[in-house]
Amino acid sequence: MPGPVIDCRNVWKVFGPLTLGDFDRIRQGGASKDEIQKENGCVIAVADANFSVEAGEIFCIMGLSGSGKSTLLRHINGLIAPTSGQVLIDGEDIAILPMAQLRSLRARKIGMVFQNFALLPHRSVIENVAFGLELRGVERPERNARAHEMLKAVQLEAWAEAPISELSGGMQQRVGLARALAGDPDILLMDEPFGALDPLIRRQLQDQFLTLCRGLKKTAVFITHDLDEAMRIGSRIAIMRDGRILQVGAPHEIILGPADPHVAAFVRDVSSKDTLSAKHIMTAAKPAEAKALARVKGVAPDTILSEAARTVAREKRDIPVRDDSGAMIGVLRIPDILGALSGRGLHAEN
Amino acid sequence: MRKTSPEHNTRVLPVALFAILAIAAAWWLVPLALPDWLTKFPAPKGLDNAAALVIDDAVGWMKKQWVDFFDVFTLILRTILTVIERALVSTPWPLTSAFALLTAWRLSGPRAAIFTAVCLAYLGLFGFWEKSMSTLALVAASVLICVAVGLPLGILCAKSARSKRLLEPVMDVMQTLPTFVYLIPAVAFFSIGKPPGVIATVIFALPSMVRLTALGIEQVPAVVREAADAFGARPMQKLMKVELPLALPSIRLGINQTIMMSLSMVVVAAMIGAGGLGLDVIRSLQHLKTGQGFLAGLAIVLCAMALDRMVRGKQPGRPSGRK
């Protein structure tokens, strides 16, 4: 079995003039972030980040502004080199890669989408989409054909010859997405791509992104400050604060078992009704119950919480969870459902 | 590290200024017999002459040492000038005019073309055609050199803070040193005629080109540069495909400035034998012929304005879509 596509090991990034002694002190926890910043003007942007992303995963990094998430993202394509630690792409440490090879890696393997679109205003839509291929030296007919294909994928083929300035924000970001996909990269880096868009457009683009990502089997690292967005599209989520990764886990793991008070504070306002499903909150059935529930209408393990809650409301009692074969695999109890809906971590109480 | 306290500075300066003014006022009100060394700056005798002589010697030495270099340089300049001037002067005027009008139309639209036509008509009707072609040859050569040298220097300034720090004071001197000061050595090195005129013009106009090119490149948004990097652009690709195209409006303004400044040097260049329209102005000045001087001056102004409108490009104009 192949290893992870992206593997960050003990990544540290400190901006500013840092001596080795200082760095050792920070690493051993001897000096706090504020102390170091006051003493010699160094800013710790990323502190000991560890995570890996498997092929086909959408890995979200969630944090507020200044948490170091964008800096961490830029380590993955070498736009920023780590102060210490390793960034492995398909097992290759890119921090020590020669510049020419790093450029080739960026051009072929990694596409990037930016918060402010970062399109080239002097070029038409199609020239923007074909930009990466042009840099690689692909001939015009070939790169335009490919760019047209990508524009079709984001439903903008009618705008191919238009100047960028004629497009709305949402359309511009679809051009950004098409540009990133045009080089057929394995990895997509999304730097708060939908943060600048209004909620309705954001939702549409999230769906479009998910469809494209799954259809084309891309691995993506997705930065966001919006936990709802992270829950919606992330297969797994890393929560960052002050340069540190506080917790990594699947959405339901984070909602049900926040690792520390900061994560719990983030999670408090998340609407768990669309994020959790029956299998996450069911408990094992007692033998006596099994019989009593045999005739009660059940739900599938993947039923989302809001729907399961409706069924419980109709039945007015605990309901069974049944798998495809109809066998009962657990029970959804009313207190658990109410607990989950009110946003409190259940297993934390046990 | 030296720490300057802003409060300290702001207090000392006004107090010192006030004290100096008070002393000066007291002197003026109560005229006292002051010793000589107070009323006259004690300048050592002969220092100025000695320094001037040293500079003279240095120029003379350089002229002797690098005579071949200067000769070759002058020859190159003269060749460029001759080629351009021949092309402009010997082409029949209808052809030149048609070319100018078409260029104006293509680059900047019908308005610019009409304005150019008016200017050309003036030059022809008042007998300035040949002289203005000769002047334009001088301007064209100066602008060519300014762009050829200024564009790379501007890029260098934008890319390297150290080069910028080095070039900044040099460019300040080039822009502020009175023209006549370097006109004399220019004649010494390049003899009289058009080549020293071009050199003087380039010294005067080059800094604008460098500064505006650098400004244009520095203004390219960081995130667009980052995008180019993220897609694997090599430094040269980034420059050619992202930075220069985005800096183009500023670079175009630089070229425009260079043209204007070159035309403003035409009269000065005529003083060292560059001929053309500038010579007419100087002759009128010498013979106190106001009318002729005015006509020749207007010809220079119209040349400048026509070129400006031609090169400026299509103006976005007022936003017509919104009302």
What would the keywords be for this entry?
heterodimer; A: 350 residues; alpha/beta; 6-stranded mixed sheet; 4-stranded antiparallel sheet; 16 helices; 12 strands; globular; B: 323 residues; mainly alpha; 0% strand; disordered C terminus
Task: Write a brief caption for the model.
The complex is a heterodimer of chains A (350) and B (323). Chain A has 350 residues and is of the alpha/beta class.
Describe the structure.
The complex is a heterodimer of chains A (350) and B (323). By secondary structure, chain A is of the alpha/beta class. Chain A is built from 16 helices and twelve strands. Chain A has helices at 20-27, 33-40, 69-76, 99-109, 125-129, 131-136, 140-153, 169-182, 199-216, 227-233, 251-256, 261-267, 278-281, 287-292, 305-315, 334-341; strands spanning 6-15, 43-53, 58-62, 84-89, 92-93, 110-113, 187-191, 219-224, 236-241, 244-249, 319-322, 328-332. In chain A, the strands form three sheets. A six-stranded mixed sheet of chain A has the order 6-7-8-3-9-10, with helices on both faces. In chain A, strand 7 (187-191), helix 9 and strand 8 form a beta-alpha-beta unit. In chain A, helix 7 (140-153) packs across helix 8 (169-182) and helix 15 (305-315) crosses helix 16 (334-341). The longest helix of chain A has 18 residues, at 199-216. The relative contact order of chain A is 0.11. Chain B has 323 residues and is mainly α. In chain B, 82% of the residues lie in helices and 0% in strands. In chain B, helix 7 (129-159) packs antiparallel against helix 12 (235-264). The longest helix of chain B has 31 residues, at 129-159. Chain B is globular and about 75 Å long. Residues 317-323 of chain B have low confidence and may be disordered. The chains are: A alpha/beta (350), B mainly alpha (323).
